[in-house]
Amino acid sequence: MDSRRSSRAVIDPKVRQVGFFTSAPLPPDRTQSDPPDPIRSPPLADASSPGNSLSPVMIPPPRHPSDSLLRLPHSPSDAFPPPSPTTTTTSLGDFSDDVTAASSPPPAAARVRGRGSSVKQQGAASSFPGGGFEVPPSVKAPSSVPASGLTTVSVVKLPPGISENAGGSVSVEVQSDRALNSKPLKEKTSKAERRAIQEAQRAAKAAAKAEGIKTPAVTALANAKSAKSTKPSPQRNDSAVVVAASEKKGGDRSVEKDRKKDVPHPRMQYDDKSRVQKLKKRSVVKPTEARNRVELFRHLPQYEHGTQLPVLQSKFFQLDTLHPAVYKVGLQYLSGDICGGNARCIAMLQAFQEAIRDYSTPPAKTLSRDLTAKISSYVSFLIDCRPLSVSMGNAIRFLKSQIAKIPISLSESEAKATLHSDIERFINEKIILADRVIVKHAVTKIRDGDVLLTYGSSSAVEMILQHAHELGKQFRVVIVDSRPKHEGKLLLRRLVRKGLSCTYTHINAISYIMHEVTRVFLGASSVLSNGTVYSRVGTACVAMVAYGFHIPVLVCCEAYKFHERVQLDSICSNELGDPDSISKVPGREDINHLDGWDKSENLQLLNLIYDATPSDYVSLIITDYGMIPPTSVPVIVREYGRGQLWIYEECDPLASPGRCSDAVFFVDGLIFYPSQHLVLSFWFPDRPPSGLNNDLLERSDNFVTVAENGNFTNFEL
Amino acid sequence: MDFQVVVLAGGTSKKLVPLVSKEVPKALLPVANRPVLSYVLEQLELSNIKDLIVVVEGADAALCVGGWISAAYVDRLHVEVATVPEDVGTAGALRAIAHHLTAKDVLVVSGDLVSDVPPGAVTAAHRRHDAVVTAMICSVPVSGLSEAGSSGAKDKTKKPGRYNIIGMDPTKQFLLHIATGAELEKDTRIRKSILRAVGQMDIRADLMDAHMYAFNRSVLQEVLDQKDKFQSLKQDVLPYLVRSQLKSEILINGAPQGQQAKENGNDKVSYRILANASTPSFHELYALGPNGSAPVRRTHKCCVYIASNSKYCVRLNSIQAFMDINRDVIGEANHLSGYNFSAQNNIIHPSAELGSKTTVGPHCMLGEGSQMGDKCSVKRSVIGRHCRIGSNVKVVNSVVMNHVTIGDGCSIQGSVICSNAQLQERVALKDCQVGLGYVVSAGCEYKGESLARKEK
């Protein structure tokens, strides 16, 4: 196995070794999983500020001391009216005809009201004993039965913290958590304060030196994350407040944070016992770890399947800091009710939308900070349920940056409405519209008489196939499926119902079926910056066979799933599924050769969820920015990694030709915007589209698309 | 979590006469010297539920229950007691307090449930599927005395077969059919449409409805409003919801399903992505039109949560069940009782006094301040507080409540003796129930009788 892999030129054997030696006491060198030296090149390092870059796989920061204390006031019906953004439809030329412009909604006069005062006041609130039990006559009863009043017979008088304590062992972990967090608050001696100030000054000096500009030192220290040179002025105000807050908490932390920022967090390694212990203390779900794990994958979390769900279920009422919508999504992740990158991301964002709608800032807190902490706690809960996908990580990063951007002058209801519409816009533009653009691109690749092969069930591929069918193209689909999930069956069912002619086979037959295939369309969970496609396990196999048969492999992936990580194999970052599902065959009780063997020391079952397809096997990646060869992924990541949400109305030259007149169209449909200072402008600044990048051409050796003023021409090579 | 909890504590159940009376409503019947209601409340408290509504039938009973709760749970729970008239049934009780319900979902628990199943499990299953109702079902308890099975009288051998029939889909998540009690005399009718939609139905007779339901609040209120004939949750509301799940007549406002997800194109797409990503339940498949376009039929989901066999889950709804629960709580399921058992596997309060040569066997409980004479023997029984028991008394498989006086030479087997009762010398009881304050005169022998004062 090793010898075969080492033959590939892309891989440096030394780096690979690190991935294998997972049982070593030290956490593996981070260089394997991180962008190549982010520190040496300042502009890159800025873009991939480590805290951000690894967020999808990082352990979230510890809970803010506040959020375990406050209880979520649920006001389900009347929190604030769903913002009805005035949607304007602009025509976007060739790309997409209907883009809804999510303009910020009118400042809605939102009423926010807790629901604390509902029940008790209606009933006769007389206290026992000696209280009257008379039925209040005024209440109208819905039926013949007289309505009854409520009588409060026992009231909890203690503050929530103490009452929970009295509740017994129920909330021990919450308590301990709180105790830990509240410590620095208590030690508010004068000495600590002095020290904090001193530290702050020192750090400020260092930051000023590093920047070389006279940026207010305080600002630079406060959030190194957002200390980019282009910072709007309201934010500066915001951060000044933040500094005050952080100084109160103990300024030495901020310096520590700065120091930590330099080094990207290594991903959580689950073979590191002490860290796993720490994580377990924090985690809500309290999983039981599986015993027999495959040596190579020890660093990935694997738990006894079926232990998490009951625990999570029984904690239903204990997680009252959690919003019900978030809880529900977590439950659905855990039970596998929702899977698939787009669906999980949409479900999560919609849950966050609901949570934000019901959110109200506690007194003496600012919305941006408290809400960020809140979202972080939600995210850590979701990670407990199932590791985040790259798409979700990017969405979370987007949401947090939007929260951070909210000017402090904005009222709470306005801020919430803004966030609501931001999330809406993310879903619409990054997922739905992106899919639509992908479909537009990909359909051009389908000709009459084609036989298209797809693996598993990808939402983008499904849309492509359906759209091509609606256009009246004559083609046949081969759906390749695999155990144990059989996701292809659902896709098959939907496609057959639409009237497509399909062939269904399992991955075992791939080498046979590949003879008749002319195109392979694959979905992806993520595309990494070395062009590696991270996708459902089995994708690599399909791509490899297709490559062997000289059949073009087209990967359809929305750009928000791109990640700057570089991954050479599917070992260092992956997810492990339930091992039982591969040892048991549903519906075939007679195949029980492995029953009871899972406790054996000699048997290790491995059910990987993802694999990495090397870029060699991928002909083309179809994204919402066009069709690109795998080598061009870093370009998209760089543009995108800036944290800029590409808003089509703002910088799409097709939508507003006047504003971005200097856009350069490129081979593979990429469009670059020199005026937006996007990095790509230095490749071929202001050159006509005839100037093709040879490097790009070599990679996608089957076809090339040239975009000329919005008209796409396909060249088959 | 946007859940409200309603505990239906009942009133003075007719089934439990003579154990219950005006002074001791059903909710306050002692199980291992604690009111049965406390088991529910404790379980809820353990799940961090602090706000409860306890519904009691009858003003007298409400006074008792409210008094007890306020004494026992002050500073621990926020309990509100609602009084409803007697004999309105469980549905009627909910109807009466319907205007107090505001949360998205309501958890309805019977006050006579002795169980260690976390209520969160039911509510979580409910939320996960966006169900209209989720019922907890558990296996039918093994009734009667495990070792002395022959001693059970004729009516007791019949009772355990309460004959529930519960139909579920193969994944055991959805409820397809439920029939209990009286309906079973007739033939069971199952909707063909449901069978056709699911394809396969598991029908179980060894499970029973534990009377812990999570309801969607708006649906519950709507059903209660529209069907004012409905008396019982278990026998009317739940079967109705299950029956009509594929041609739903209720309007779920804020329905998760298809209805509102089509106002504009983008929402529709995201809805479709979400729907495609999950394995559709038979409800969704059935709701879809023939060409698989937009949902055309309205459905709602009825879910079940099956308590695992390792959990204890019994309802105190008959005298036999009362005996069984008392036995189990100090026996097999002793983690429920909340007491620490001694090395002899029994609980003897330090203030209890035992005479010479008196033995208290394992799985027994002796309450505070009780006195026993010489040469007594207690086996598998619960004896309450401040009882005075003479010499040479045998208590086997029985429940003796508080302040009971038992004369010398009595023999009590398989019986329940309520508070303040008095047994004079040499009384022999077997499978009897002695009501509150009843005096059994000396030398009597009873077998399988119910003794109580005549109430005017």
Could you characterize what this model shows?
- The complex is a heterodimer of chains A (717) and B (456).
- Chain A is α/β, with parallel strands linked by helices.
- In chain A, helix 16 packs parallel to helix 18 and helix 17 runs antiparallel to helix 18.
- The N terminus and C terminus of chain A are likely disordered.
- Chain B has 456 residues and is α/β, with parallel strands linked by helices.
- Chain B has two domains: 313 residues, Spore Coat Polysaccharide Biosynthesis Protein SpsA, Chain A; 107 residues, Hexapeptide repeat proteins (UDP N-Acetylglucosamine Acyltransferase, domain 1).
- Chain B has eleven helices and 32 strands.
- In chain B, a hairpin with a 6-residue loop joins strand 9 and strand 10.
- Chains A and B meet through helix 6, strand 3, helix 7, helix 14 and helix 15 of A and strand 4, helix 2, strand 5, helix 3 and helix 4 of B.
Contiguous low-pLDDT stretches of chain B (5 residues minimum) are 145-161, 253-263
Strand order, sheet with most strands of chain B: 5-4-1-6-12-8-13
Residue-averaged pLDDT of chain B, rounded? 80
- So, CATH architecture of the largest domain in chain B? Alpha-Beta Complex
Give the overall average pLDDT of chain A: 65
Question: What is the subunit arrangement here?
Answer: heterodimer
Strand order of the largest sheet of chain A: 6-5-4-7-10-13-14
Helical region count of chain B? 11
The CATH class of the largest domain in chain B is: Alpha Beta
Give a short account of the largest sheet of chain A: 7 strands, mixed
Low-confidence stretches of chain A: 1-145, 158-188, 212-255, 257-262, 643-717
Q: Look up the CATH topology of the largest domain in chain B.
A: Spore Coat Polysaccharide Biosynthesis Protein SpsA, Chain A
Keywords:
heterodimer; A: alpha/beta; seven-stranded mixed β-sheet; disordered N terminus; disordered C terminus; B: alpha/beta; Spore Coat Polysaccharide Biosynthesis Protein SpsA, Chain A; UDP N-Acetylglucosamine Acyltransferase, domain 1; seven-stranded parallel β-sheet; 11 helices
